[in-house]
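Anyone able to model this chain together with S-adenosylmethionine?
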Amino acid sequence: MFIYPHAYRKLKRGPQVILPKDIGIILAYSGIDKNSVCVDAGTGSGWLALTLGRFCKHVYSYDIRDDFLALAERNRQIWNLDNVTFKNNDVTKKIDESDVDLVVLDLPSSEKALKNAKAALRENGCVVGYLPHVEQVKKYVEKLDSLRFADVHTVEVIVRDFLVRKEGTRPTNTGLWHTAYLVFARKPQQQFSADKN
Ligand SMILES: C[S@@+](CC[C@H](N)C(=O)[O-])C[C@H]1O[C@@H](n2cnc3c(N)ncnc32)[C@H](O)[C@@H]1O
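re: yes, here you go
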């Protein structure tokens, strides 16, 4: 089964990674480009952070574990990227950057980092939650709503593999089905009061 392109086979894996099938939709739906600055948490094996680094201007990637940051740093060197900065910091407490275009949260309790994500984002910037369970999605969306994020949109990416053979072409019996739900949202533009007093 094809799960990732050859370049990823060189990278080490520690904690569960975000796979290219889900990274693809993050790149497409967030609208980032080569001028974008992104924040990623947690770093884990660095797969998402490093892929973002191939497409945007700079990535700041946070984790609370030095061993995972060291693993991600080794992966950074394998891909020879100089626009990805790893930081040891708890994003539920603080995100240093401001005016960023994208924040991606892949944490056990991502909703706890949403307030800081909102403060770090520019207006119309995008936050993406990567959430394996439906219960997490519910909690996360409630938090997005209470913080008045806009354009909340939840998706799951299902890739259907096909067998193409002389004896018959059909979908495979098995495949990579569920990985996580992805919740996209936008930081709304500031509303100014019409009341001049
Ligand atoms: C599933 S891994 C992330 C995998 C990563 N997205 C990738 O593609 O390789 C989750 C990571 O979040 C980190 N983490 C958990 N809570 C955190 C927090 N409050 N702030 C920063 N990182 C955190 C964990 O140490 C772990 O490495």
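Residues 33 and 53 are 10 Å apart (CA to CA).
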